[in-house]
Structure formats: C-alpha cells, structure tokens
Design goal:
Layout (H helix, E strand, L loop, with lengths): L2 E8 L6 E2 L5 E11 L6 E10 L1 H9 L7 E14 L5 E14 L36
Length: 136
C-alpha cells in the first residue's frame, strides 16, 4: 500500500452511484498543483470514495466543482491503452478520509457560507469494494 495525503480542487459536481453489488460510491477527479512558478503543473487524481456513510457525508457537506479538499487514501498508478495506440498512465486514489481545506479566496457577501462541520469518520465502515466491483 502506498498512502497519499494531498490537497486539490474537485473538477466536477459529484454524482453518487451504486455498484452492481449495491455499494454506494463516488468517483471524481481532483486537480492537485505540483511545484512552483514556471515549473508548476497540475496532476489529476481519479478518486474513489465508497460506502453509504462516506458518500452521504461528502454530498451533505456540499462538496462540488471547485471545492478545495484534502484527501487521505491509497495511491495506485495504472497503465492503460489510449485510443491512438499509445500507452498512458492514470493516477488513482481510493480514499479513506477527506476534509474541507480553508482557502484564501474572498467570499461574496451575498453567497451562502459552505458547511465546514466535518462528521467523524466511522472506522468500521471503510467501504472496501472487491476488485471485481471497482467502477474504474
């Protein structure tokens, strides 16, 4: 297992789904800035969060496109075949926890404030999904 902790922005609104084995999950991309100045680049992580309680926690907290979150999980790098016949790599993270991350963006006085309450993680429901049940 390779553990990862990183901070990034969610790239699209969340769409909860249910697997063939009736496990709730969220699959989303996280854009993570790496480096500084001219050498800065963006790394996209394909994130998987499983389990009804974890999925509902993220949805109820209002995580959406542009939300800045910090994740903790298991990192995997997979090779795949591109349509043009070349090989590509996908960086994937199976999450076991996440939190909102404070940002320095100025808040609009007319907008509603985001929920910052973070329910405790239930260690008994880590939402493990069998390899043949993974959605990606």
């Amino acid at each position: 297992m390779i553990s990862i902790n990183c901070t990034g922005r969610v790239t699209a609104d969340l769409e909860p789904k249910v697997s063939s084995k009736r496990t709730q999950y969220l699959r989303f991309n996280l854009a993570v800035n790496k480096g500084f100045g001219e050498k800065q680049k963006v790394v996209f992580l394909q994130c998987l969060l499983t389990g009804e309680q974890q999925v509902q926690r993220m949805v109820n907290a209002g995580v959406k496109k542009g939300s800045l979150i910090t994740i903790a999980g298991d990192l995997d790098v997979e090779e795949y075949d591109k349509k043009d016949g070349t090989k590509g790599t996908a960086v994937k993270a199976t999450l076991y926890d996440w939190i909102y991350t404070p940002s320095n963006k100025a808040k609009n006085e007319n907008s509603e404030s985001q929920t910052t309450e973070q329910p405790q993680n239930n260690a008994e429901d880590n939402g493990n999904v069998a390899d043949d049940d993974l959605p990606f």
